Amino acid sequence: MGAVGVGVYCFAMTMYVVFMGRMDAVVAIVGSTPDESADAFAKLREGCSEEFIKKIDDESLTRWLATIREKHGSLVSTNEEPIPIRGGGGLTMNANFVNGPAPIVLRFSKLGGTKFLIDYIAIDGLAVGQSP
């Protein structure tokens, strides 16, 4: 029983690290300045599904970010921990923008094992990617 518990713990910690890395990449994009966006996009794409990458080019991400910045202003901070979406397959995190709070939502596709890739990102309903 002890070995199973250790295995479950290790798997849970691996998933936590994977999910936090994905959320960190999204927060980096949302918090980036227009001059920093290209580097942030490249980092984000490392954790995105092929479908997302095919559909969402840098121009689409730039327009999406401009819409978020216009509506919410700059990102000020995020709450400490993302919350799993009920039913699995995603995370939500409360973010604070100049114009007030708004949720950041990620949804993932699972390729097997611990390979979870971003399929969908939304901030206060402004989305890029596949419909959840």
Secondary structure blueprint with pairings:
Elements: H1 2-31, H2 37-45, H3 50-55, H4 58-72, E1 75-78, E2 83-84, E3 90-97, E4 100-110, E5 116-123, E6 126-129
Antiparallel strand pairs: 1-3, 2-3, 3-4, 4-5, 5-6
Notes on the structure:
- With 132 residues, the protein is of the alpha+beta class.
- It has a single domain, classed as Roll (Nuclear Transport Factor 2, Chain: A).
- It is built from four helices and six strands.
- It has helices at 2-31, 37-45, 50-55, 58-72, and strands at 75-78, 83-84, 90-97, 100-110, 116-123, 126-129.
- Strands 1, 2, 3, 4, 5 and 6 form a six-stranded antiparallel β-sheet that branches.
- A hairpin with a 5-residue loop joins strand 4 (100-110) and strand 5 (116-123).
- Helix 1 (2-31) packs antiparallel against helix 2.
- The longest helix is centred in the first third of the chain and has 30 residues, at 2-31.
- The radius of gyration is 15 Å and the shape is globular.
- The termini are far apart.
- 29% of the residues are buried.
- The model has no long low-confidence stretch (mean pLDDT 80).
